[in-house]
Design a protein that fits this description.
Low-confidence stretches: none
Shape: globular
Number of strands: 0
Structural class: mainly alpha
Distance between the termini: 35 Å
Order of helices and strands: HHHHHHHHHHHH
Strand content: under 5%
Number of helices: 12
Largest sheet: none
Length: about 260
């Protein structure tokens, strides 16, 4: 898999393909392969989520380090290139021109934002760890959830012991509570005691670990809907509202349920 990832990366550089598309394709292949291994090896879905999610994170970061050392690739320069392209397109957008012409608070904020691409790049890099972490695990979680939700179509061909109920009963490992406490402390007083960078680290830790507690809180929410015998369209509507507007509450529920 690592060799295939490296081949796709070099191919995207050689043929001037989109690196993002190449990585997305490879990620899709790995997620599909991981779920296949989960089913074939009869692995508990919650454990598979942690096992394959962290394996992908570790492998991709190690591969990024190797690529950075062996080539002239720079993640910072790559992000800055996309930021500058975004700023260029925005400045040439008619809506941006009209907003600048009207003036006002929103126009001033937007002007300050696009006037310094390096600042935008720095902000993106600051939050990239948690964004990447959350994207990986949410994708794995959603993929496993959908596969188990539609187990009726494939379970006849595979002897897989676990169901969607086992996955919904996911519980974040107790060991995650310690880095969560550390992240909370750094996010609250990190900028005062040890510097702003540690506050950013604290918030990244909170967002990363909050992902697992969201999964746990979502499971509690589904159990509640089932206990109240809420089914059909009303259940789907409640789930949608919970995901869109109540995700913070779901994280808190998962944390309390720890």
């Amino acid at each position: 898999i690592g060799a295939l990832f490296l081949l796709i990366f070099l191919g995207s550089m050689t043929f001037d393909l989109s690196l993002l598309n190449a990585v997305t394709f490879m990620f899709t292949v790995i997620v599909s392969w991981s779920i296949f291994c989960m089913v074939m090896n009869n692995i508990r879905p919650g454990f598979a989520l942690l096992k394959y999610g962290f394996a992908f994170l570790g492998g991709s970061l190690a591969l990024l380090g190797v690529i950075t050392l062996l080539t002239d690739f720079s993640l910072t320069l790559e992000i800055q290139k996309y930021v500058e392209l975004f700023v260029f397109q925005m400045k040439n957008n008619k809506e941006y021109t009209d907003l600048m012409g009207k003036g006002g608070k929103d126009a001033a904020i937007l002007k300050n934002m696009v006037s310094d691409p390096s600042y935008l790049t720095k902000e993106i890099l600051s939050w990239l760890p948690s964004a990447y972490f959350m994207s990986v695990f949410i994708t794995f979680w959603a993929s496993i959830f959908l596969v188990l939700k539609n187990a009726f179509y494939w379970k006849g061909n595979y002897s897989y012991s676990y169901t969607i109920k086992d996955f919904i009963a996911f519980r974040a490992p107790y060991a995650f509570s310690w880095p969560l406490i550390l992240g909370l402390i750094l996010s609250l007083i990190g900028d005062v005691v040890v510097g702003e960078v540690f506050q950013t680290i604290g918030f990244n830790l909170l967002y990363c670990l909050g992902t697992f507690f969201f999964f746990q809180g979502f499971g509690v929410f589904l159990d509640y809907l089932s206990d109240k015998k809420i089914e059909g369209l009303l259940k789907n509507f409640a789930i949608l509202m919970g995901l869109v507007f109540g995700w913070r509450i779901l994280v808190l529920v998962g944390l309390v349920d720890l």
